[in-house]
Every structure is written in C-alpha cells, then in structure tokens.
Write a structure and sequence with these properties.
Blueprint: H1 6-13, H2 18-27, H3 44-58, E1 62-66, H4 74-87, E2 90-94, H5 98-104, E3 108-112, E4 115-119, H6 122-128, E5 133-135, E6 138-139, H7 147-167, H8 175-191
C-alpha cells in the first residue's frame, strides 16, 4: 500500500467512515494537510504509527508481531508498547529487543527441537537461546564461551545502532553505515 495516500490506506483497511478516519489520523499526530501524502514518503516510525492506527481502528483480539521495533525510534517504541498494551489483544511476538519483550510479554515459549515449551522464568527464556536443544529438557553441552550469546548481543547492538541513526534527521543519518549494519544483521540472523 505504499503508493496510496494516508487517508486512502485507512479508508481501505478500516470499517469506520472517512470522516472518522480523518479525525483518527489527526488524533494520531498526522496533520490534515498530510493526509494526501503517500505512505511511501513516511519514515519507518510514521509507518509503524499508521499501522497501529489501522490496527486500533479494527480492534483485533490477536496480533502477530515480527520484529515490530525494527526501524522505529525510541519514542516510537514507547508508543508501540503503549498501543500494544492498551489494545487488550493477545500478542504473538518475535523480537531481539529484550526491553520491549520484557515490557510486553507475560508468557515465554521456547522452540526446543520440534516442540514448543513454555518457560516461566524470563531469564531461563533468554538463556535458552544460548543453548541448542536436542529434545525437551536435554541441552547439548556448550563451552563456557557461547558464540550464540555473543551473536545475540551483537544483534541487539546493531538494532540499537540502526534505530538511533534512523531517529536522526535525514541530513545527519549515515546511509552507508546503515547498509553495513543491516548486512551484518542479516548474516547474524542467518546463523541463528
């Protein structure tokens, strides 16, 4: 939908009337003159904000979020957290953003072999990423220096660097560094 305007996007995706959509866009921080702008010109944070506006207008009871904090600034993450929590929806979430997960999640599930296993301690959830499991409850022995834990730490750092750089005004951003960080992120994610 990047080629559509903000108002056309909301009109296509939401059940209310066009008048109610305009009011919702304004309440969400999109001034009336910007309603005719194409979605393709929005920043990553603005796109996320628009996406959550349409989600809120549709009032779903179940959301699947895959890396929702990628490409949004710190303020956008706070807004996203507030919107997800206020929605009352059940959320299935995948994210490398531990702070976001800690804020949103109240249940944790680990994929162990070919099974889903609920863990009740968030620390166990996070440390389970540093072990490769062969079957439930039986972890492969690992060395003291676990390379997968280092990989996760680097992914978190790269996500932070990208988010911080994207939060800057465009003239202060470093596109070459962003591309470098994204390439490294893609490689690290393939390893996991």
């Amino acid at each position: 939908m990047p080629s559509l305007s903000l108002i056309d996007t909301v009109n296509d995706l939401c059940p209310e009337t066009a008048t109610e959509h305009k009011a919702a866009l304004i309440r969400s921080g999109f001034p009336y003159p910007t309603h005719i702008n194409r979605v393709s010109v929005l920043s990553g944070g603005e796109r996320a904000h628009l996406m959550f506006l349409t989600i809120n207008l549709n009032r779903p009871n179940f959301l699947i979020l895959d890396e929702p904090t990628n490409h949004i600034d710190i303020e956008g993450k706070g807004q996203l957290e507030a919107q997800v929590l206020a929605s009352g929806a059940t959320v299935l979430l995948t994210s490398h953003d531990r702070r976001f997960v800690d804020t949103i999640a109240n249940r944790y599930v680990v994929i162990a072999g070919d099974r889903l296993v609920e863990v009740h301690n968030p620390e166990h959830f996070y440390t389970s990423f540093s072990r490769q499991t062969t079957r439930v409850g039986q972890a492969k022995p690992t060395d003291d220096a676990d390379p997968s834990l280092d990989t996760l730490d680097r992914i978190i750092e790269l996500d932070r660097l990208l988010a911080e750089d994207l939060a800057r005004k465009p003239k202060f951003q470093k596109p070459a560094r962003q591309a470098e960080w994204q390439r490294e992120l893609d490689l690290l994610n393939e390893r996991l």
